[in-house]
TrEMBL record:
Domain Carboxymuconolactone decarboxylase-like stretches: 33-91
Gene3D superfamilies in the record: AhpD-like (1.20.1290.10)
Molecular function as annotated in GO: peroxiredoxin activity
Protein name: Alkylhydroperoxidase AhpD family core domain-containing protein
Pfam families in UniProt: CMD (PF02627)
Keywords of the record: Oxidoreductase, Peroxidase
Cited InterPro entries: AhpD-like, AhpD_core, CMD-like
Organism this protein belongs to: Microlunatus soli
Source organism, top-level taxon: Bacteria
Length: 148
């Protein structure tokens, strides 16, 4: 059970973060949106968000093997240049190891125009907010239905 229900305890704050989420989901192409959300959530150890975004990807028709390989995306050849650039940027922004290196930024800027890049950054920042809220409140995904 989570420590508190943010949507009830701080409804206005929750709505503000949800507003960023709504904007991001409408302004970043769907598969890239879910890829960055899943990867950032993996890095942040957010079980709630990993479960949610992996499930949403599966429901939208993304192959299971692709979803399953997000944690090792550099090791497989089925991510497009745009997806690879988005995943690398998501990792750098999520981890912030002293800033986003120029080579990572430049690679993303080669495959995304300025507006796309700005919207991608907002989406990455938003999932990091959600991850921190869900991890801090110990939100858990619903357990999977077990075959009997």
């Amino acid at each position: 059970m989570p420590r508190l229900n943010l949507s009830k305890t701080s409804a206005e704050g929750y709505r503000a973060v949800y507003g960023l989420e709504k904007f991001s989901s409408e302004h970043v192409e769907s598969e890239i949106y879910h890829l960055i959300k899943l990867r950032s959530s993996q890095l942040n150890g957010c079980a709630f968000c990993v479960d949610m975004h992996g499930s949403q990807m599966l429901e939208s028709g993304v192959p299971f093997r692709k979803i399953n390989s997000v944690a090792a995306w550099r090791e497989v050849g089925w991510f497009s240049d745009r997806e690879r650039a988005a995943l690398e940027l998501a990792e750098q922004v999520t981890l912030l190891p002293g800033g986003v290196p120029d080579d990572v930024w430049n690679a993303a800027a080669e495959v995304f125009d300025e507006t796309e890049l700005a919207n991608l950054l907002i989406a990455i920042a938003t999932i990091n907010v959600w991850n921190r809220l869900m991890v801090s409140t110990q939100a858990e995904p619903n357990p999977p239905a077990l075959a009997g």
